[in-house]
Amino acid sequence: MIVILAKLDPRRQEIALEKYTEGRHAPRDGATNTRQSCAILGPICRQKIQVKKNLGLHPATYNVVPKGALVLEFQLLFLHQADLSRGERDIRIEASDLQKWANVVWGTI
Fold first, then answer.
1. Distance between CA atoms of 41 and 24, rounded to whole angstroms?
2. What is the pLDDT of residues 16-28, one digit of tens each?
3. Partners of 2 in the β-ladder
4. pTM score, two decimals?
């Protein structure tokens, strides 16, 4: 399972994206752990991306920090291994696509 949170800040025209998947939480240093508490699954943030407007430029342009794609793993979306012979693979939303998306979002608000 994958959860994507999108936080929009209209004042600064920024978009923060966070990708969460389910995983086992690492034990905390100094905490008392039992077998049961170590086996608890929960959401873990796997990727954070910010799409920030370059101030003072017209037409508007956006920076994606960090550089790189938002990757949605096929297996986590469809709950089975990708079959490359059928064209199944991870979904990559490239930085350029995120910049275009930001332009559309802020152009309509």
1. 5
2. 999 999 998 776 6
3. 21
4. 0.81
